[in-house]
Design goal:
205 residues, alpha+beta, four-stranded mixed beta sheet, 8 helices, 7 strands, elongated
Length: 205
């Protein structure tokens, strides 16, 4: 933002209040957390240069406030998946504590060790994680995502991807678990999402 005018900064701001609602709204916008000011003289009149900004960590913290309640976010994911299945005349999934342990564990591990993928650094895949969580599977599947900042956004991305959509709408799966983790990774702050789908082996329950 650049402005020039007679008088001190107080007079300049008072002029904005009288004449420029747009500038005032920009100055007072809640997204702006930091301010830099430069002053020079041009044609014997003060010239002001203002930089309004928000740091990446502040923006991330603001945008992910509603994701901090992991219990609620996992419940919202569960409900969103079952809405999609109902819309396609499929039976709803049941929540599985073991699959949820596997999903949340994978999300937490990716965040803690700074990687993203279906395979861990030790090349453990979803079947290995579900076995470790105590789930005896007939079949399992996994969706992961990175960066989306709401349940609606991540579900939209999954449903627009043929591979992820197949997992969500797979009639073979009967149970699911969900995980979300957010925080600092090597490339910056991230949100990590995991869905794990399963069908228990007959006689395992």
């Amino acid at each position: 933002m650049v402005a020039q005018g007679d008088g001190d900064p107080g007079a300049l701001i008072a002029g904005w209040r009288r004449q420029s609602e747009a500038i005032l709204k920009d100055l007072e916008h809640e997204n702006h957390r930091d301010l830099g000011v430069g002053v020079a003289w041009l044609d014997e009149m003060p010239l002001y240069v203002l930089y309004l900004a928000v740091t990446a960590p502040d923006e991330f913290a603001r945008d992910t406030r509603e994701l901090r309640d992991h219990v609620r976010v996992r419940r919202d994911l569960f409900e969103a998946v079952n809405r999609e299945r109902a819309a396609h005349h499929l039976a709803p999934l049941r929540l599985s504590p073991e699959l949820e342990k596997a999903a949340q564990g994978h999300a937490d591990d990716m965040l803690a060790r700074g990687y993203y993928g279906h395979a861990s650094p030790e090349h453990v895949m979803v079947l290995g994680r579900t076995r470790e969580a105590g789930y005896v599977a007939d079949s399992v599947g996994e969706n992961i995502a990175k960066g989306q900042r709401s349940v609606d956004e991540v579900m939209k991305g999954w449903m627009e991807s043929p591979e992820h959509r197949r997992n969500i709408l797979n009639p073979m799966f009967t149970e699911a678990g969900y995980g979300v983790a957010l925080g600092r990774m090597p490339q910056g702050d991230e949100v990590l999402w995991v869905q794990v789908f399963g069908r228990p082996r007959p006689g395992s329950r």
